[in-house]
């Protein structure tokens, strides 16, 4: 009888569309990851080891970090809920939604929500829930599960998405990715503006200041955490870092490993609800355990170090063949966590009997461990799952190894034979003779398909005389040849650090432009004129602006005098927004924007064009320096913006301008 | 440095490829080593360990340790996978038995994979081999990622006279063997092997060199089934050839 897992595998292998989509994913992601690692400030292996030690520390002292985090989050105004189980988490979310009589929930990506099966529960309760990440939206429209934790629609081609949009929105059949993205932008824009509740995941929680960090590219994560009056963040209890310094380390690794970016377009650092009217006023944090604290006490603990970057999926040769939808339980139930880490997590969190077999679909090649930015020893964990060694230290929940019966019998016999040289020798000779008797002329044995091996390859014939029996014929002594011994050369290349301009402004400009951002250098006396020229060129006569305190002196007045209307109010009709910034980061071309009533978040989010004023002296070389500036984090939300909003959710095709601005233009005051 | 070296030939080479065993001995002789073959040896226990059957793997590992405890000096294994099993996984296999863990560690400290032994330990790369063919190299997973051995076999192959070396595209991708995996998941294994063979085709090489008889068996099994002319070889066969 074929298991549901095997059925899915066969289905995936015989689907040429899926195969080419998976190839495309692996090729692009793996290349991008390797390339971007070269831009790390310290060598990758050192950073991986640091990140591993950091995750280990957090998981070892999780109770302590968790209470520190909760305390600080609460004092920032977060309403914190704890859910031990998936059912409790769902009930808490439903309760919040009902207490606001909310009808419509706009949701950005959250794997925890997949894990607790939130969407079906909300729909059952009559609540409309709309996924807003492009990939998630596509799979929701198709009534499917995400096929990859980072790239949910990885299994689909642009033609399939084009047909879907044709069917759902009456869009003329197209395979043009920008057209489809634009459609999603306009459909979902209405959702963001009308949603009663925004629901998001969390990438990291920072214990020292109770802040959460969400990384996104399209801008939907910012939308759902900014526009609706109520925000619910779902977070796995293990996703903590002690300090902002540690967050910087994680942010060096997560986007690079996930999508090959130095930073994602938006890194939202949410301290708490807004006190003064800008942005979301009520924020709930739902901390979900769902088996994590128990897993912490097992030999699979290291799986909790995972930061959900998906690099192991992309590196895994098995994932590349079968894709994310194949990872199903013994009864056919889908797990949100596939790939190498998912094969461990699913067994550890959702049940060994149901999901333990996933860990057997691995050649133990170690490509996952090599790709993992926090250096999780995945092959070791996969082997422990196979051995049924997921029992906790205190409780003895030991399982039996889950090898199939033929291996159990075969290897029991093999163990007996291979523990005795006489039996081993006898078995070798018997096999050799039998093979010669059955197939006197062949060097190869064409085994039947059911043996597994015979499915695609022939098997070598055992030697008539094994090595142990010919050994004595060899002249086993050293030949007195004088091959000169040379001292081993070390061929390992020490990668030279990538060069970047020493001038911070040039460095920043180079990085920003590489992301598709625009850089205009000018003096403070010219900036008004330059800006006006830009606005006139684009026929823009109205702007959402930050308060004049945060812009160069006289700039707002100058624009007003020249016929440009400025307003602090968010208005979806406005084409451009003008902001200042707290500082900028050269290494990733990033703008750091705090927010409050005078510095509205929407000005850098809703309009198609984001214009930003930067003072040259505010450019910092690297991320940790920006995160160290305490000034940055006084406001309820700080956003790190790296270029215009983007997506690669359809066929990994980069498309600029999804939910956030299509253009980011920085005027740098020299 | 003693002039004598112990050979742990591995169960696959012992049973299926005695000629590779001979080549290993020739290579070691050529670098001035006298080779001893403890005849009680069988297998390192990896098949059972990888299947998750640790209770079955343990007696095999104990047997192996006992056999080699009777000998002295360095132990050479012509397989990255078996060397890694001993070096990295024996500790976990005996995690509840400190006594055996210690014996396993003492044993593991004597163990070298063949190319690692020649290049790192002896400092030799030119063994005077001649192999007038187009060759390419498949990086076996455990050798590469668990032992960190890659430049060593390449350095050895670089010195082989008259061999034309062509780099294998995606050489570090698994060939789909994975021991019991290839039997439990034949369809996935086949798809992985198909990619490997496509890449081998792309090189135009006649021989694919590896340091593991497991990968070699897998690749050759596929090549033979498809009626392809190329062959996978163990590195010792190339190094022994003159």
How would you characterize the overall build of this protein?
The complex is a heterodimer of chains A (670) and B (242). Chain A is of the alpha/beta class. Chain A folds into four domains: 1-38 and 298-393, Fumarate Reductase Iron-sulfur Protein, Chain B, domain 2, CATH 1.10.1060; 76-289, Rossmann fold; 413-470, no CATH class; 504-669, NagB/RpiA/CoA transferase-like (Rossmann fold, 3-Layer(aba) Sandwich), CATH 3.40.50. Chain A contains 26 helices and 24 strands. An eight-stranded mixed beta sheet of chain A has the order 8-5-6-9-21-18-17-20, with helices on both faces. In chain A, helix 25 (555-561) links the parallel strand 14 (542-545) and strand 15. Chain A is elongated, with a radius of gyration of 29 Å. The model of chain A is unreliable at 486-494 (pLDDT under 50). Chain B is α/β, with parallel strands linked by helices and 242 residues long. Chain B folds into two domains: 4-120, no CATH class; 126-240, Rossmann fold, CATH 3.40.50. Chain B is 53% helix and 11% strand. Chain B has 13 helices and eight strands. Chain B has helices at 11-16, 18-30, 46-50, 54-69, 80-93, 98-108, 114-121, 141-146, 151-158, 181-184, 186-203, 213-225, 235-240; strands spanning 4-7, 34-36, 75-77, 111-113, 134-137, 164-165, 207-210, 231-234. In chain B, strand 7 (207-210), helix 12 (213-225) and strand 8 (231-234) form a beta-alpha-beta unit. In chain B, helix 4 (54-69) crosses helix 6. The longest helix of chain B has 18 residues, at 186-203. At the A-B interface, helix 1, helix 15, helix 18, helix 19 and helix 20 of A face helix 1, helix 2, strand 2, helix 3 and helix 4 of B.
């Amino acid at each position: 009888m074929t298991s549901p897992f095997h059925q899915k595998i066969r289905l995936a292998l015989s689907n040429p569309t899926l195969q080419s989509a998976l190839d495309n994913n692996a090729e692009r992601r793996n290349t991008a990851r390797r390339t971007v690692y070269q831009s790390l400030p310290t060598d990758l292996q050192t950073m991986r080891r640091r990140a591993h030690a950091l995750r280990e520390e957090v998981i070892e002292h999780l109770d302590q970090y968790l209470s520190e985090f909760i305390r600080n989050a609460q004092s920032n105004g977060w309403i914190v809920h704890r859910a031990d189980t998936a059912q409790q988490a769902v009930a808490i979310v439903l309760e919040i939604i009902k207490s606001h009589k909310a009808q419509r929930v706009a949701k950005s990506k959250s794997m925890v929500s997949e894990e607790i099966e939130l969407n079906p529960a909300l729909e059952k309760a009559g609540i409309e829930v709309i996924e807003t990440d492009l990939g998630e939206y596509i799979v929701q429209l198709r009534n499917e599960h995400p096929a990859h934790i980072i790239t949910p629609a990885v299994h689909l081609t642009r033609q399939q998405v084009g047909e879907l949009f044709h069917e759902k929105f009456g869009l003329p059949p197209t395979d043009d990715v920008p057209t489809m993205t634009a459609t999603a932008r306009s459909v979902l824009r209405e959702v963001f503006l009308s949603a009663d509740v925004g629901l998001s995941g969390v990438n990291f929680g920072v214990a020292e200041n109770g802040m959460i960090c969400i990384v996104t590219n399209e801008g939907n994560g910012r939308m759902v955490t900014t526009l609706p009056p109520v925000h619910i963040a779902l977070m796995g209890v293990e996703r903590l870092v002690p300090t902002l310094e540690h967050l910087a380390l994680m942010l060096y690794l997560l986007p690079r490993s996930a999508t090959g970016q130095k930073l994602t377009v938006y890194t939202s650092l949410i301290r708490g609800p807004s006190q003064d009217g800008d942005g979301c006023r009520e924020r709930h944090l739902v901390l979900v355990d769902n088996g994590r604290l128990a897993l912490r006490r097992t030999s699979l603990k290291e799986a909790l170090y995972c930061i959900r970057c998906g690099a192991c999926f992309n590196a895994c040769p098995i994932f590349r063949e079968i894709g994310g939808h194949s990872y199903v339980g013994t009864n056919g139930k889908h797990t949100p966590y596939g790939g190498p880490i998912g094969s461990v997590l699913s067994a550890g969190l959702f049940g060994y009997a149901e999901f333990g077999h996933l860990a057997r679909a691995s050649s133990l090649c170690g490509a996952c461990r090599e790709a993992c930015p926090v250096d999780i020893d995945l092959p070791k964990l996969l082997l422990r799952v196979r051995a049924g060694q997921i029992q906790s230290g205190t409780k003895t929940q030991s399982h039996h190894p889950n090898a199939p019966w033929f291996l159990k019998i075969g290897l029991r016999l093999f163990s007996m034979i291979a523990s005795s040289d006489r039996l081993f020798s006898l078995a070798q000779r018997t096999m050799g003779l039998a093979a010669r008797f059955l197939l006197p002329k062949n060097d190869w044995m064409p085994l039947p398909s059911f043996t597994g091996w015979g499915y695609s390859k022939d098997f070598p014939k055992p030697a008539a005389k094994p090595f142990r029996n010919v050994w004595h014929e060899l002249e086993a002594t050293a030949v007195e040849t004088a091959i000169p011994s040379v001292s081993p050369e070390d061929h390992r290349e020490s990668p030279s650090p990538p060069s970047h301009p020493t001038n911070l402004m040039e460095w920043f400009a180079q990085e920003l432009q590489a992301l598709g951002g625009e850089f205009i250098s000018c003096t403070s006396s010219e900036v008004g004129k330059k800006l006006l020229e830009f606005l006139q060129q684009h026929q823009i006569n109205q702007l959402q602006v930050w308060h004049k305190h945060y812009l160069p002196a006289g700039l707002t007045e100058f624009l007003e005098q020249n016929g440009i209307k400025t307003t602090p109010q968010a208005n979806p009709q406005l084409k451009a927004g003008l902001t200042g910034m707290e500082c900028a980061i050269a290494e990733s071309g990033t703008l750091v924007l705090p927010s409050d009533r005078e510095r509205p978040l929407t000005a850098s989010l809703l309009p198609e064009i984001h214009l930003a004023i930067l003072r040259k002296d505010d450019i910092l070389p690297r991320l940790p320096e920006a995160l160290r500036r305490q000034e940055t984090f006084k406001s309820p939300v700080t956003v790190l913006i790296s270029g215009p909003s983007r997506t690669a959710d359809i066929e990994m095709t980069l498309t600029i301008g999804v939910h956030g601005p299509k253009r980011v233009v920085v005027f740098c005051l020299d | 440095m003693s002039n004598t070296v112990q050979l742990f030939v591995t169960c696959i080479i012992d049973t299926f490829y005695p000629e590779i065993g001979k080549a290993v001995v020739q290579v070691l002789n050529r670098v001035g080593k006298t080779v001893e073959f403890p005849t009680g040896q069988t297998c390192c226990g990896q098949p059972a360990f990888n299947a998750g059957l640790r209770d079955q793997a343990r007696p095999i590992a104990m047997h192996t340790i006992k056999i080699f405890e009777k000998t002295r000096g360095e132990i050479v294994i012509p397989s990255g996978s078996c060397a890694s099993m001993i070096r990295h996984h024996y500790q976990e296999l005996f995690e509840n038995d400190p006594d055996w863990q210690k014996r396993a560690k003492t044993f593991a400290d004597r163990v070298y994979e063949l190319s690692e032994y020649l290049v790192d330990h002896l400092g030799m790369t030119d063994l005077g081999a001649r192999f007038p063919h187009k060759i390419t190299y498949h990086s076996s997973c455990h050798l590469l990622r668990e032992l960190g051995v890659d430049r060593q076999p390449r350095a050895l192959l670089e010195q082989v006279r008259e061999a034309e070396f062509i780099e294998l595209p995606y050489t570090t991708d698994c060939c789909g063997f994975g021991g019991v995996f290839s039997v439990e998941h034949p369809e996935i294994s086949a798809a992985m092997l198909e990619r490997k063979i496509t890449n081998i085709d792309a090189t135009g090489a006649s021989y694919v060199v590896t340091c593991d008889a497991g990968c070699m068996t897998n690749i050759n099994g596929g090549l033979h089934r498809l009626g392809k002319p190329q062959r996978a070889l163990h590195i010792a066969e190339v190094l022994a050839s003159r």
